[in-house]
Design brief:
mainly beta, Immunoglobulin-like, four-stranded antiparallel beta sheet, 1 helix, 7 strands, 9% helix, signal, YtkA-like domain-containing protein, YtkA-like_dom
């Protein structure tokens, strides 16, 4: 009976491993007109890409109460995701990217950008 319990526990217990989130800015400058684009690469500790992750972007101005109203995430495969944000006003913005993938610890990274 004890062996069966140990085997069931080992089967059901799945520890979360840390994932690596790298964010690259596709644009050197963010402009009010047109979408702002970020490229993400999500990998496991061995450097293997993580596909089918949930990517949750959000952006807000740091000097006033303004949020990005529209955002879109496009998965390209091999752990690469493209994030398009509509930053509708010039000034300082904080862009937060959260990622969740089955079997991995959730990740979060915040970038500070200036929109012209």
């Amino acid at each position: 009976m004890a062996c069966i319990c140990v085997i069931m526990l080992a089967f059901l217990y799945q520890p979360y491993v840390p994932a690596s989130l790298q964010v690259q800015m596709e644009q050197k400058q963010f402009m009010v007109r047109g979408p702002s684009t970020l490229k993400l690469q999500l990998t496991d500790p061995d450097g293997l890409p993580i596909d089918e992750a949930r990517v949750i972007p959000s952006a807000h101005m740091t000097n006033m109460d303004m949020m990005a109203l529209h955002n879109r995430v496009v998965p390209h495969g091999h752990g690469i995701y493209e994030v398009n944000l509509d930053l509708s006003m010039a000034g300082p913005w904080a862009i937060t990217i959260q990622t969740q993938a089955r079997g991995f610890s959730p990740q979060q990274q915040t970038l500070q950008v200036n929109v012209l």
